Amino acid sequence: MPAAALKPKPLPTQSTAKHPVLFDSPYEPEVKRPLPAGRPRQWYVTHNRRLKAMRLAIALLDSGVYLPDQAHDETIRRTAERIGMRPPSDTTCHMVRALMRYSR
Length: 104
Hints:
The chain is an all-alpha fold. The protein is 47% helix and 0% strand. It has four helices and no strands. It has helices at 3-6, 41-62, 73-82, 90-102. The protein is extended and about 65 Å long.
């Protein structure tokens, strides 16, 4: 019998790293830089909407919502409220589901 068959398979949440990974603690986000000047207003609106959608998609994934079909508008809005964000528009909710769909 091969040795690999005797070795127990790690759990999906168990690390397979040979050495412990050190994390910088406490976490500090990057310093925000101002957006470039001179772009049309619509560019800034779209840029901020994408950032909001990305934050919401990450929060949904962290809370256990993995499929776009599970992320209804109301679920996304409740998540936004829970993380202290203003309620997203229908367009942003659609963008959140698109991010979840295309990340697979």
